[in-house]
């Protein structure tokens, strides 16, 4: 399915939410006043993101969210990035509340620790939108993310297909999972295992990567290469950052033949690794509709409007968008067709020949 078709399907699924939200700035300006927002469209919305190591947050989530807020009216965005520090995020949330934030849009560093942020906001009558990662408790006003178990299934399906084509389904694999404090990481792993466990693949070792750190992923994979060596036919890496660490370890050890490596987030460096064959696949998640929907929900909540969604998770209105697998054969029809990355972004001089081979450029 093309990205545009997937986006259309998302829009159909989210019709109920968008009807209730009242997306136009004019309509919002006519709403009655509520804490943090007045009839003139004034008010403050806090956007609290978890880290800067994952490229998507600063490159896409923040600017897309802020741009949509600006389209909806004269609202202040109180932005903070926690740099993977749960205590720092707690302090940032407290500062945002003290500064008059009428809504918190929270992507938690630690889904358990973030419950205290939600409780503090609730105590002040401030609604919380759980963004990308679901906070593990508290009274949430909305949750917007992707189908995270499906992400793992997509990764593992592409992984298994590649190993089947190579005739290596009897080989051993490493599983480099995400942060143990990230509820999404659990869903990714569950989805991946639902596919992998039904094959003859042997999971040689499995690792929950602290803070999604590429360096820690590299260090762990290096140790596994020393232990298992030529038994490794593939590395399931939960995102592109951990994939980069795995690739660095494999290159340092001169591993041959080259294992199949997965990823997620369609980072530019990952798309380029796919072109060179260092990484087999990634997962593209259309962040624009996610960030924009979060902005629309936040503005509606700022004005005390009721919001609904296609799904319900533990009593929270929820929208889950569809992820898409990307291999070298899909780059043009996915991230390029959707404007996520341009040919100019991808095909720098170092990748010219690889882009020609993949059909992204002509000679």
Would you mind describing this structure in some detail?
The chain is an alpha/beta fold. It folds into two domains: 3-140 and 286-322, Response regulator (Rossmann fold), CATH 3.40.50.2300; 148-284, Rossmann fold (3-Layer(aba) Sandwich), CATH 3.40.50. Helix content is 45%, strand content 17%. It has helices spanning 3-13, 15-21, 25-29, 56-72, 86-98, 115-123, 148-166, 183-196, 214-228, 240-252, 268-276, 287-302, 332-336, 343-346, 352-358, and strands at 44-49, 76-81, 103-106, 128-131, 142-146, 172-177, 202-208, 232-237, 260-261, 282-284, 311-313, 316-321, 324-326. The strands form three sheets. The chain has a seven-stranded mixed β-sheet with strand order 2-1-3-4-5-12-11, sandwiched between helices. A four-stranded parallel β-sheet has the order 7-6-8-9, with helices on both faces. Strand 8, helix 10 (240-252) and strand 9 form a beta-alpha-beta unit. Helix 4 (56-72) packs across helix 12 (287-302) and helix 7 packs parallel to helix 8. The longest helix is centred in the middle third of the chain and has 19 residues, at 148-166. The model is unreliable at 1-41 (pLDDT under 50).
Overview features:
about 375 residues; alpha/beta; Rossmann fold; 2 domains; 7-stranded mixed beta sheet; 15 helices; about 45% helix
Tell me the domain tally.
2
The overall pLDDT, averaged over residues, is 89
Q: Looking at the structure, what is the overall shape? A: globular
Name of the CATH architecture of the largest domain: 3-Layer(aba) Sandwich
């Amino acid at each position: 399915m093309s990205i545009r078709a997937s986006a259309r399907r998302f829009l159909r699924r989210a019709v109920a939410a968008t009807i209730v939200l009242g997306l136009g700035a004019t309509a919002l300006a006519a709403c009655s006043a509520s804490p943090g927002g007045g009839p003139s469209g004034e008010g403050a919305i806090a956007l609290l993101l978890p880290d800067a190591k994952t490229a998507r947050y600063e490159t896409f989530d923040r600017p897309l969210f802020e741009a949509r807020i600006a389209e909806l009216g004269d609202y202040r965005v109180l932005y903070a990035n926690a740099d993977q520090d749960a205590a720092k995020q707690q302090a940032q949330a407290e500062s945002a509340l003290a500064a008059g934030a009428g809504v918190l849009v929270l992507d938690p560093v630690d889904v358990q620790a973030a419950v205290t942020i939600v409780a503090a906001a609730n105590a002040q009558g401030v609604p919380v939108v759980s963004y990308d990662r679901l906070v593990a408790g508290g009274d949430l006003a909305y949750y917007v993310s992707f189908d995270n178990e499906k992400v793992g299934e997509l990764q593992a399906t592409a992984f298994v297909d590649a190993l089947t084509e190579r005739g290596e389904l009897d080989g051993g694999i490493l599983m480099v999972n995400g942060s143990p404090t990230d509820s999404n990481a659990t869903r990714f792993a569950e989805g991946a295992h639902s596919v992998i466990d039904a094959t003859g693949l042997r999971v040689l070792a499995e690792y929950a990567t602290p803070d999604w750190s590429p360096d820690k992923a590299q260090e762990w994979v290096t140790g596994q290469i020393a232990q298992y060596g030529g038994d490794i036919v593939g590395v399931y890496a939960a995102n592109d950052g951990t994939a980069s660490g795995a690739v660095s370890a494999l290159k340092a050890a001169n591993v041959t033949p080259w294992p199949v490596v997965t990823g997620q987030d369609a980072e530019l460096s990952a798309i380029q690794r796919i072109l060179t064959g260092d990484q087999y696949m990634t997962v593209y998640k259309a962040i624009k509709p996610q960030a924009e929907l979060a902005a629309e929900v936040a503005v509606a909540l700022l004005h005390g409007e009721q919001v609904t969604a296609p799904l319900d998770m533990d009593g929270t209105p929820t929208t889950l968008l569809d992820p898409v697998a990307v291999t070298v054969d899909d780059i043009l029809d996915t991230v390029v067709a959707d404007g996520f990355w341009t040919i100019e972004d991808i095909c720098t001089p170092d990748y010219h020949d690889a882009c020609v081979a993949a059909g992204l450029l002509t000679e």
